[in-house]
Amino acid sequence: MSPSKIPPLTYKVVAECSVSKARAGLMTLRHSEVNTPVFMPVGTQGTLKGILPDQLIELNCQILLGNTYHLGLRPGIETLKKAGGLHKFMGWPRAILTDSGGFQMVSLLQLAEIDEHGVNFRSPFDNSQCMLTPEHSIQIQNAIGADIMMQLDDVVKTTTIGPRVEEAMERTIRWVDRCIEAHARDDDQSLFPIVQGGLDVPLRQRCVSALMERQVRGFAVGGLSGGESKHDFWRMVDVCTGYLPRDKPRYLMGVGFAADLVVCVALGIDMFDCVFPTRTARFGCALVGSGQLNLKQPKYKLDMEPIDKDCECSTCKRYTRSYLHHIATNESVSCSLLSIHNVAYQLRLMRSMREAIQRDEFPQFVRDFMASHFQSDPIPAWIREALAAVNIQLPADPEKNDEQEQKPKTEKRQETEDLDKEQVATS
Asked: Record's superkingdom (predicted)?
C-alpha cells in the first residue's frame, strides 16, 4: 500500500484485561506511533508551560494537545499556514491532538453567545468578536495540521439539567456532519466526534448510536469532569465505553488526576488530557504515588531526598526536595523543574498500566496503586463502586478504633484540600 493510501490513523488492540474493560493498544498516526492508554500533556498555545519540546521527547511523550480556539486567535490561521502547521511552528516532531474550541463555551461563557450557526466569542485579549462555526473550527485545525482533530460540539456545564442538555446533544450530532463536510485534509488528519448528553444515560446512548453511523476513526467522550459528582462521572464513562466500538480509540476529555486515570482505564478509556500536572507545578506541588507533595511547606527545608527516588526524570536525578522548597513559586525555574517531574509521573503511570494490561495483571496493579495512593485515608466509595462494576474488588480499608474515628482529617488530606482551594481560587 502506498503511503498516500495508508489511513492517517490506525488503531490495534494489542492486549486486553481478562477481568475489566482495560485494554492496551497501538495507534499509528502521521507523525508518530502512540501506545495507549496514553496521557496527553496540554500545550494550549502551542507550548507546555515550563517545558521545551526536546524535554518532552526526553520523557518519551508521544502526543500532546493544542487548543483550536486559542491558536485561532493567536497566532492565527495565516501565521500557522505560513509556518507549515503547528508541528513546524513549535518544533515538535511527534503527534498533536487539537480540541475544537467547544469547551470555551463553558469556560468563557460570559464571553460567548451560542446558536445553531456557531459560537460568537469576544476575544479575552482585545475584546474583538470571533464567530466560531463548525466549518471555521475545522479550517483552523486543518491549518494547525493536528494528527487528530475534534469536532466543534455544543458544550453545557456538566450539572445542567432539563431541555438544554438534549438540545446540546442533538446540535452536537448536527455539527459533526458540518465538520465532516468541511474537513479538507482527511488523508492527513483524523476527525473525532464527541459524545455528549450530560448525566442522562438515554441521551448518552442516543448520541453514541448516532455518532457511530458516521465514518470516523475514533471517538471522544466530552461534557464530564466539570463539577458533577464522581458517582455520576464514572457511570457516564462506563455507559459510553459500553456502547463505543472495540476497534477504535476512546478519548476522555479533560481528565488527569491519577486515581481518575486508573479508574477510567479500567472502564475502557484509551486517551486522556488535562492541564493539572503543569498547573499544580506552578503552585509548588509535585506528584507522587501517594498524591501530592506541597514543596512550599517548611518540613521540606532540610529534606535532601529527591521528589521520588524511583523517578528517572532530570529533576529527580539532580535536585533535592530542599532545593525545590527553596525556589518553589519564587523562581520561574521551579515551574519548569516541577512540570518536568509531574509530566514524567503521568507518563510513567500510563506506561505501568500498559505493561500490567499486557501481562494480564491489571487488577493487581489497581489494588496496589489504590493502597499506595490512599495510604492515610479510606478509598473513596465511588472508586470502589466503579471498579466493582468491572469486576475489580478492592480489599476493605483497615478497621478503625474509636480513637482513630474521632481524629481530625489527616495532614495529607488537609494539605491536598488546601492546595485544591488555592489553585481554584487563583486559576
From this structure: Eukaryota
Provide mean pLDDT across the span 291-318.
97
pLDDT interval class at 402 (50, 70, 90): very low
Q: Considering 99, 154, 270, 308, which one is annotated as catalytic?
A: 99
Query: Residue 223: helix, strand or coil by DSSP?
Result: coil
Q: How far is the CA of 22 from the CAs of 61, 89, 230, 265, 271, in angstroms?
A: 21, 36, 19, 5, 12
State if pTM tops 0.90: yes
Q: Check if 154 is active-site.
A: no
In what side-by-side order are the strands of the sheet with 112-114?
112-114, 119-122, 129-132
| Binding site, annotated residues for Zn(2+) | 311, 313, 316, 341
Q: Quick one: average pLDDT of 253-275?
A: 98
**Where do the domains of the chain lie, and which CATH numbers do they carry?**
9-273 (3.20.20.105), 281-359 (no CATH)
Annotated binding site: 99-103, 153, 196, 223, 311, 313, 316, 341
User: How, if at all, do strands 194-195 and 219-221 pair?
Assistant: parallel
Q: What is the DSSP letter of 193?
A: P
Rounded to 5 degrees, what are φ and ψ at 394?
Answer: -95, 145
Phi-psi region of 208 (alpha: psi -120 to 50; beta: other; left: phi over 0): alpha
Q: List beta partners, residue 293.
A: 286
Q: At what angle do helices 201-211 and 230-243 cross, to 10 degrees?
A: 30
